Amino acid sequence: MTLALCVVGCGESAHNWLDGLRGHIDDVTLFFASEHVEDARRYNDEFAGAGVFDSYEEAAADPRVEAMFFLTPHHIHRECALVAAGHGKHVLVEKPIARNLDEAREMVRAARDAGVVLAVAEPTRYMAAVDRCKELMAEGAIGDLRLVQVQDEHYSPTHDWRNDAELRGGGELVDGGIHYVDILINLGGLPETVYAVTPPRILESEGEDGVAVTVRLPGGAVGLLNVSAGTPSSKSDIWTQVTGTKGKLSFGQSETTLTLDTIDGSRAIDLGDTDDADVRTFKDFQAAIAEGRAPVMSGEEGLRDLAVVVGAYESLERHTEVPLPSVEIE
Fold first, then answer.
1. Which residues contact 14 (CB under 8 A, 6 or more apart)?
2. Which of 7, 21, 110, 214 fits a disulfide with 85 by CB distance 3.0 to 4.6 angstroms?
């Protein structure tokens, strides 16, 4: 079944996504929408699209369009999703789902009331290394969970709207850091409490350029998250390590293996030949529409990720450990 999808926001992020999906979306009819219609025309030509729109409102109202992929600044995610759902269009929205929990809840309710799929484009939820790590944990490979550590350190000055904390919803944690929040709670469960501190800043943008977060996980385990876009290094340092009572599992950002290490020795576990996480993200959205089910990375899951970020920001303001904000949706 062919899906008619309008890509909204024809910037660098959209190009990266579409470039990675080449050869995997032959069953997708693409449309493009941008307030800069010349960008939409350029993308339409490059990716063999079926038409362009000069606004997402126009695209949402067009009966040819079945679903919309919003690669837009964070502050208009809510508005975009509500307009799309109001016209009965399925929604895939870039992470984070929204800037705050009220916006996210409204998006989830609107999709639910309209009977459409709402998914968050969060590729870390579809990483083969994370999936295999969860399987090994469930099999008892490392015993009972003690500690989940996730690190993302790199140097990446922001620009344009990302320099504005109001438009972004905060700083690095809500933006790039939410990828690693997702890994943390996917492996460790939804935290009960959150505590956060920030190091001295380097970048000039509004919002934090780095943050260290400690969470209390279900069952007494601890989660540690270190996110920084202001680490003055030529190389990114991105890794995950999960420690249990019998051993630990670890993997890097783009590795094809993960490592199981116990007191008896260490061995590499091949992840096999799997699709890229971006491809798996999109294919799950497409399948959820066809099968009438919730996607793996649903709006509710996006809200759970955002709750950890919101809790961290509250902790920064109060200088203390705080309970995780409610993830309930009325």
1. 7, 43, 71
2. 110
Torsion sign over Cα 226, 296, 101, 203 = positive
Alpha-carbon distance of 164 to 207, in angstroms, equals 8
Q: Count the Cβ atoms, other than its own, within 10 Å of residue 223.
A: 25
Phi-psi sector, 74: left (phi>0), alpha (psi -120 to 50), beta: alpha
Mean pLDDT of the chain: 96
pTM of the model: 0.96
Q: Which pLDDT belongs to residue 272?
A: 85
Query: Rg for the chain (alpha carbons), in Å?
Result: 20
Query: How far is the C-alpha of 226 from the C-alpha of 219, rounded, in Å?
Result: 22
Q: Encode pLDDT of 155-165 as tens digits.
A: 999 989 999 99
Contact 169, 273 (CB under 8 A): no
Does 1 have pLDDT greater than 80?
Answer: no
DSSP codes, 298-324: BHHHHHHHHHHHHHHHHHHHHTS-EEP
Residue 233 above 80 pLDDT? yes
